[in-house]
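> forwarded from #structure-qc
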């Protein structure tokens, strides 16, 4: 029987370039390899993990998830041995993250000829986005390092919204000061107010995300402030658990295709990382195909894919409704390309109208999507129409944030007030006098009441 303690397991930081081979302690303040300048990744002792059978790992995770035993009820920390085994449980900062709904999109899937379509709703979380999965690990590591006497006065990030919300919330829970650099007037009010409410120092800079990212890297190089963006490989350790959770929710079966929005591209490589570790340990016996969806207005990975990934050419990201992925120079490009090559990957893009319409169309079947999920759904529609995704496939779309963060944007869509968007699925309240006959007449025009409401007229039909 697998022991519940993670202390027999170890992980470390390693350069992503196999020709370099440099290694570092996981609690060291370092983001790039000192030998070659490449990004780092957390590496686990797979041979040690493999001493336990796949059946033992499955039983352990099934027994822990959503339990009240600290910290194993978390969808991240129930897999502590495969995330960060060396950390003291007392220093873990958790909001019971993970365990989000794997939603069977039955009606939407039937409409597009994919009856086995699922949406992993990562936005059903403490701060409303998948960023909680990575931030619980990163902030826990900072708490551990501070407990060990390391001088880390604050943690900082550049953000277009979701990262800042997660950092501010987890930092507040841990009692660690947080600093957020946002592009001024380029994030929704709901996203802006989250770090403010949690007491972060919020700096709204006259630049875009890439400009904020440059500044925060320079800041963390000259101060003891710790960097919380996804170039910090600790974030990916938490985010990789979404792959493990999806498989677990399917009773340890692997879907055929996973579609994920891509901006800075850390989440793409995290997804692949979780799948590869499960494959190495025999928990799964095949790999899904991974599709990365980008907004057409911020599409450096898509352009590189069109050239066979010959090189990354940074672009100046144009404004997009999918603001969290409005990134023209993704930090995790190399890691993402490696993942796509390992998983028979595809990259597709979506215009502003395509992403807004896909989100609104899916909303009409019971969802409430963020625009980044709209990008993924639009890419899915294109691939389905071209026959690159087949009707008999089990497909999972990663929904990265909660739609309520973008309520103003959704209202503007239905009011026809979004630039670059035609809005084929607009729906507006009908203003009427308070008279029964008038109400009945309107309803009879819109719904075939005699036929049990089987026919609905109106916008988008």
């Amino acid at each position: 029987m697998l022991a519940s303690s993670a202390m027999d397991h170890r992980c470390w930081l390693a350069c992503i370039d196999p020709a370099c081979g440099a290694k570092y302690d996981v609690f060291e303040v370092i983001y790039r390899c000192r030998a070659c300048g490449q990004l780092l990744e957390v590496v686990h002792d797979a041979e040690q993990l493999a001493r336990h059978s796949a059946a033992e790992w499955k039983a352990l995770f099934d027994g822990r998830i959503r339990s009240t035993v600290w910290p194993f009820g978390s969808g991240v920390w129930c897999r502590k041995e495969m995330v960060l085994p060396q950390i003291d449980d007392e220093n873990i900062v958790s909001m019971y993250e993970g365990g989000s709904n794997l939603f069977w999109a039955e009606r939407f899937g039937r409409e597009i000829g994919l009856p086995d379509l699922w949406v992993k709703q990562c936005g059903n979380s403490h701060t409303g986005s998948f960023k909680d999965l990575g931030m619980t690990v990163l902030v826990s590591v900072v708490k551990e390092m501070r407990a060990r006497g390391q001088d880390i006065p604050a943690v900082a990030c550049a953000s277009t919204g979701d990262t800042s919300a997660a950092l501010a919330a987890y930092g507040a829970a841990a009692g660690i000061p947080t600093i957020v650099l946002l592009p001024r007037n380029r994030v929704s009010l709901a996203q802006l107010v989250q770090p403010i409410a949690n007491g972060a120092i919020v700096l709204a800079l006259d630049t875009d995300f890439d400009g904020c990212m440059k500044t925060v890297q320079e800041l963390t190089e000259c101060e003891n402030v710790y960097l919380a963006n996804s170039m910090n490989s600790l974030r990916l350790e938490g985010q990789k658990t979404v792959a493990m959770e999806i498989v677990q929710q399917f009773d340890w079966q692997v879907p055929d295709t996973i579609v994920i929005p891509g901006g800075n591209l850390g989440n793409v490589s995290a997804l692949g990382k979780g799948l590869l570790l499960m494959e190495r340990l025999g928990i799964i016996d095949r790999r899904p195909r991974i599709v990365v969806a980008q907004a057409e207005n911020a599409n450096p990975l898509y352009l590189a894919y069109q050239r066979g990934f010959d090189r990354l050419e940074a672009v100046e990201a144009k404004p997009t409704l999918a603001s969290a992925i409005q990134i023209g120079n993704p930090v995790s490009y190399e890691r993402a390309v490696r993942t796509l090559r390992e998983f028979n990957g595809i990259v597709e893009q979506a215009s502003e109208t395509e992403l807004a319409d896909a989100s609104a169309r899916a909303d009409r079947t019971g969802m409430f999507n963020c625009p980044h999920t709209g990008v993924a759904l639009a890419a899915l529609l294109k691939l389905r129409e071209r026959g690159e995704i087949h009707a008999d496939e089990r497909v999972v779309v990663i929904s990265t944030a909660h739609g309520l963060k973008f309520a103003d944007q959704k209202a503007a869509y239905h009011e026809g007030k979004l630039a670059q968007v035609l809005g084929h699925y607009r729906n507006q309240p009908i203003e009427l006098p308070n008279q029964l006959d008038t109400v009945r007449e309107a309803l009879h025009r819109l719904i075939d009441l005699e036929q049990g409401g089987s026919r609905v007229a109106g916008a988008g039909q």
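QC bot note: The mean pLDDT is 93. The chain is about 40% helix and 15% strand.
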